[in-house]
């Protein structure tokens, strides 16, 4: 893919419909999307739906119902629980009338400006001057989402056992003709936690995340975001990936994914 020819992850078609560009394609197939752009697309809809001054989207949970094709998508959101200080939003992404993603978000009133910050996370590592190698990841589709993001690896590498730490930013906007919001930048990256932090050999195990939850105690500042991720798995159970999100000023939120672990098909 030539990035200069990819204006964005999505092109707006009007009426809540979007055309997915090849930049949305995930690492496993050029025909199916990575969860990052999809999560950001519905997060964008949450932010724009009946906005209330002085509130912010503090938590988004995205349920991935099936592989999302690189195709036209319809995005619809609604208010599930209205309120001036706390509101629950619900949303759905469909392809040709079939739901492929469902999501919820809590929109809450911003805390008073004089609140004394309480942050327990350690300072993020410095942003590397140059990108690191992807590592040996045979059979992976690189010419979609992975190329549409700029990566600066700090610890670990894609396709290698984690935990891992990476700085990243999108090379292109989420929607053509728009500047990304802090929430959109965060959601575009957050679903990469299991790829960055996986401690299972991806050549021996099939790992599929069913969801991603992103909770933010403040909005990030700047284009570059840091994601530190690790994965836990148990026999007879499943896997759980958790990530810490930070910008140059420090930690601002967390990401959590539930994952299926199985032997790959023959």
From TrEMBL:
Acyl-CoA thioesterase-like N-terminal HotDog domain location: 25-107
Domain of life: Bacteria
Name of the protein this chain belongs to: Thioesterase family protein
Entry-linked SUPFAM superfamilies: Thioesterase/thiol ester dehydrase-isomerase (SSF54637)
InterPro entries xref list: ACOT8-like_C (IPR049450), Acyl-CoA_hotdog (IPR042171), HotDog_dom_sf (IPR029069), TesB_ACOT8-like_N (IPR049449)
Endpoints of the signal sequence: none
Domain Acyl-CoA thioesterase-like C-terminal as annotated: residue spans: 129-261
């Amino acid at each position: 893919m030539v990035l200069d020819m990819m204006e964005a992850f999505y092109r707006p078609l009007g009426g809540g419909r979007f055309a997915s560009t090849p930049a949305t394609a995930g690492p496993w197939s050029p025909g199916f999307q990575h969860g990052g752009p999809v999560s950001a697309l519905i997060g964008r809809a949450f932010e724009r739906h009946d906005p209330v001054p002085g509130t912010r989207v503090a938590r988004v949970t995205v349920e991935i119902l099936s592989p999302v094709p690189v195709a036209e998508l319809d995005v619809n959101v609604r208010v599930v629980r209205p309120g001036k200080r706390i509101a629950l939003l619900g949303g759905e992404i469909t392809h040709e009338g079939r739901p492929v993603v469902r999501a919820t978000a809590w929109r809450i009133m911003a805390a008073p400006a004089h609140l004394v910050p309480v942050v327990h996370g350690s300072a993020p590592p410095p942003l590397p001057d140059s990108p690191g190698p992807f590592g040996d990841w045979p059979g992976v589709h690189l010419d979609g989402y992975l190329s549409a993001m700029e990566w600066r690896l700090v610890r670990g590498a894609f396709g290698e056992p984690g935990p891992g730490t990476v700085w990243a930013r999108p090379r292109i906007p989420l929607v053509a003709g728009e500047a990304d919001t802090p929430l959109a930048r965060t959601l575009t990256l957050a679903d990469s936690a299991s790829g960055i932090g996986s401690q299972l050999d991806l050549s021996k195990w099939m790992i599929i995340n069913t969801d991603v939850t992103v909770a933010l105690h403040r909005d990030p500042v700047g284009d570059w975001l840091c994601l530190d991720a690790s994965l836990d798995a148990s026999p007879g159970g499943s896997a759980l990936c958790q990530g810490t999100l930070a910008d140059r000023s420090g930690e601002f939120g967390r990401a959590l994914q539930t994952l299926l672990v199985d032997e790959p098909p023959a």
